[in-house]
Amino acid sequence: MNRIFRIKSSFQNRKSDMIWNTASGVIDASQSILLLSLITRICGLQDAGIFSISYSISILMLTISRYGMRNYQVTDIEEKYDFEVYFSSRVVTTIAMMIASIARIAFNYVYRDFSVYKSLVVLLVCTLKSIDGIEDVFHARLQQKKKLAVAAKAKTLRLLLTLIVQTISLLVIKNLVGAISLSILVSTFFLFFSLREICDKEMFAKLKFRFSGVSELLYICFPLFEARFLSIYISNIPKYSIDTQMDDIVQACYGFIFTPVYIVNVVGQFIFQPVLVDMAESWAQRKYKEYLCIILKLISAVDVLTLVGICGCYVLGIPFLSWFYHVDLSLYKVELLLFMLAGGFLATVTIWNMCLTIMRNQKVLLYGYGIVVLFEKVAADYIIKKYGLQGATWLYLVSIFSLCMILGIAVVVIIKRKKRSLD
Questions:
Q1: Distances, alpha carbon 34 to alpha carbons 167, 301, 304, 402, 416, in Å
Q2: Which helix (H) or strand (E) holds 8?
Q3: Which of 355, 340, 357 is nearest to 306 (CA)?
Q4: Residues contacting residue 312 through CB under 8 Å, at least 6 positions apart
Q5: Rounded to whole angstroms, how far apart are CA atoms 280 and 259?
Q6: 68 phi-psi bin (left φ>0, alpha ψ -120 to 50, beta other)
Q7: 285 SS3 class
Q8: Cα-to-chain-centroid distance, residue 370
Q9: What are the start-end ranges of the H helices in 145-175?
Q10: Which of 96, 198, 363, 398 is deepest in the core (most CB within 10 A)?
């Protein structure tokens, strides 16, 4: 069975890391998009709207499980905390994720008129996403040991299998609850199967829960969790306002044209992962020119991808999405282009997050995200009630651009101060 996950080249082969990590990123990004299209055609726009808001809530809840710890764990080169501590902390955060999910569903059921059906769909999607949270701590360990290609291959196969099961289930039983329930079972089974194949005996020996070190690790990583949580929350605030001010059909249309932001962000994160260890080593060894060179290359790549994406969306975006989702989206061309631009800013924000984590200045994230969330939360209901979906688009773009500028300035200032201290 090990042959399934074997990478022919060396574990340190950058090409394998990039190929498999990008593959898992593409499937992760396209999974919800493909399902949304399928649900629209089979179950209708209302179910598509329910799935869209459910998926948004599940992504927010997933940040509780992951706790923004992946980059910190991978760049913990000196292993200040061993794998047992990281695993124990993930157990705590995943339990917290499910408790928070249930609390959020209960609140929406009582105060926002969520139906039993809608509440059940949200719970199932959150449960499915919790599997990603558990998997992540094992894959971070493999990446830390320069076995990213192995981890990414396992994730690619699991996501692909889950997507196939969901697709076939929807086509056969035509029921959203049944399809998600079946995919939870299959995804859980494959996770255990893959971990047994790719994890060594040392990693399994440390699968013991212990309290020592967990609270300290959670405290240190709290700014990273807060940044990731608020990053998703910034994306979701317009959706929450739409959910209260408008209906599930408008929610579905917003989800359709929000597609570029999600794709650029998810794929970007997976493309960035292979260079994370190199960046950490460059910073630790005080090779600041090399560190800056990597940052500039990443930003250049984002700029090129964003420009290509905007041009592609201008020519083919609306016709393709209208066909793909089986809905006329011709009125939303400007909004689609604005979302594509926002996707580029969001990918750049991810780079700044990586930099601040590596430089161990993650507390800066608290202030940047806090300011932007406060602005967006205060403005959301008024803007969306008055300007509708177009207002939601502009609100998101302005929020992400502001965050990009704040964090970018912080990174530049910290690097300059560090270089001056050595001169």
A1: 9, 26, 25, 31, 45
A2: none
A3: 340
A4: none
A5: 31
A6: left
A7: coil
A8: 19
A9: 148-173
A10: 198
pLDDT tens digit sequence for 338-393 = 999 998 998 899 889 888 888 888 788 888 888 999 999 888 888 888 888 888 88
Q: Can you tell me which residue has the tokens 């507390």?
A: 363
Is residue 95 over pLDDT 70? Answer: yes
Neighbours of 221 (CB within 10 A): 25
Residue whose structure tokens are 């697709």: 167
Buried residues in 399-408 as b, exposed as e (16+ CB within 10 A): bbbbbbebbb
Residue with tokens 């599930």: 248
Using the predicted structure, report yes or no on whether residue 9 has a pLDDT greater than 50: no
CB-based contacts of 77-80 (< 8 A; 24+ apart in sequence): 77/144, 77/277, 77/280, 77/281, 77/284
What does the pLDDT look like over 243-271, one tens digit per residue? 777 777 787 788 888 877 777 776 666 66
Report the C-alpha gap between 353 and 365 in whole angstroms.
Answer: 8
The model's pLDDT over 275-318, given as tens digits with 9 standing for 90+, comes to: 777 888 888 888 888 888 888 988 898 888 889 889 998 998 89
Please tell me the distance from the alpha carbon of residue 4 to that of residue 373, in angstroms, as a whole number.
Answer: 44
Contact between 397 and 234 under an 8 Å Cβ cutoff? The reply is: no
- Helix then strand then coil, in percent of the chain rounded to 5, is 85, 0, 15
Rg (CA), the chain: 21
| Helix (H), strand (E) at residue 77 | none
Residue labelled with tokens 């990583």: 221
Amino acid at 64: I
Interatomic CA distance for residues 324 and 339, integer angstroms? 18
Q: 130-142 burial string, b = 16+ CB within 10 Å, else e?
A: bbbbbbbbbbbbb
- Cβ atoms of 271 and 301 closer than 8 Å: yes
268: its two tokens: 């970007």
